[in-house]
Amino acid sequence: MVMLIQDFTSKTKELIDDLKGICANYGLGNDGNEYKIITQAFLYKFMNDKFGYEVKQLDPRLTHAEPWEQEIAKYTDAQYEMLLLRLHPDSARLKREHYLSYLYQNQNREEFAKLFDDTLRDIAITNNDIFSVKTGSGARVILFDELSNFITDSSRRDAFCRALTNALVRLNFEGIFEQKFDFFATIFEYLIQDYNKDGGGKYAEYYTPHAVAKIMAAILIDKPVQNVTAYDPAAGSGSLLMSLAHQIGEDRCTLYTQDISQKSSSLLRLNLILNNLVHSIQNVIQGNTLLNPYHRNGDQLMTFDFVVSNPPFKLDFSDFRDDLDTKANQDRFFAGIPNITNKDKAKMAIYLVFIQHIMFSLSAQGKAAVVVPTGFLTAQSGIELKIRQKLVDANMLRGVVSMPSNIFATTGTNVSILFMDKTNTKGEIVLMDASKLGTTVKEGKNQKTLLSSKEEDLIINTFNQHEAVEDFSVVVSYEQIKEKNYSFSAGQYFDVRVEYTDLTREQFTARMENIKNKLDLLFVTSKDLENEIQRQLGDLLYG
After folding, report:
1. 192-236: per-residue pLDDT in tens?
2. Is residue 453 part of a domain?
3. Which of 39, 283, 308, 489 could be 256's S-S partner, Cβ–Cβ 3.0 to 4.6 Å?
4. Residue 271 shares a structural domain with residue 405
5. How many other CB atoms are there within 10 angstroms of residue 222's CB atom?
């Protein structure tokens, strides 16, 4: 099975590279629309093969047919409709003319690009209730674009769509669907590696490293749960929520997200489809979380059992800053909202607003894990201190893990993971300094620190077992944190160690004599040096 997964992984990455090569050959390499073509073509292939896999489970005749498309063509329309009704509610409903094999067999038709685009558009319309993403205003963003229209030279569109079709038919995913997310989580990361860089759009689209996502999920979910809700108010492409959902179990949780970036929302939708979480796509919202939080119960904002987030740290949000600073938001933003800076608006600490929103979004038993800049842990004044005071005074701090530097290859900011737990009334708080772990590697022009699986497990197990380990972790109470002016830095709680050695009187006398001899030698050497300098100065002045 391991060899099967490795083989599929290699071949799937080759397919992704082929699609990128086709885009480059048609002038779309590094084009702003390239990611749409690559991800949507891949998604069409995924849905086609998953449909084939699922209908084979429903009818043994299809299981043994090769190809299954020829056998299913013998169905009457009524039989085919009945087959579609038997599919899982989260599965795509494909018409027979939607199949990739149908496109492949008809690729020599005139206006093939139109047939290709019409096929994808009809799949999107047919399955709009399942796969569409909503905007904050309630408008639906459908699954597929008309991909051929990204080619400005209309005479090349047919050839472009033929090239895509021929690349897609060379691999069949059906043999790997038993692996579910174990396989496709790796593929998704490879698929979007060039399209999820920070710095694009209104919000930076962060891809949280696997190690950070794993640690957050494993600490938050340290025992089985079911029928729970999970939320990310700055979801990006969803890597944190995917790890959390796999830790909980895809069928035991419902995910909710919001992100201002259209690109991130599209990638998140793809991630949910690949990771067997289609049932949560209806809760994916494209919009400004801070200004217009979407998820509500009546007039009140929804609260959630689990929240994970890696919000942008600093960003110019001056265009809506004052709209947040209202009486209606006083409870949500209890510690205040960063002011507009005179010199560099891009350095406005927007993460402080997200932390407050997350605290407000927790249910009575809610837990959260948030990536923060490490400087947040010890700031002695301002919004940072007020937030830390609230976490302690309201008995909702679970702990902190300070990560190694360069855990994110694209930023030099040292980061920590802040854990909240509204049920942690006892105050057994774990503060951990994991900054010395990891191996530094080169990634492009940047340095990146990688944690081994053993190091990840060390962090998780030490935290979950409330272990105090010398120079690594401490377990403290709320009162102890108050005594340290609400510092969340583990290093400030480590014991100062003084080493003592038992000596006999003779050993002590010998050591003191040795120190005296070294000092005498030092002073003699210094005096000789001073005399030599004076002699050389005399020679220069008086010849």
Report:
1. 877 765 433 344 344 678 899 999 999 999 999 999 999 999 998
2. no
3. 283
4. yes
5. 13
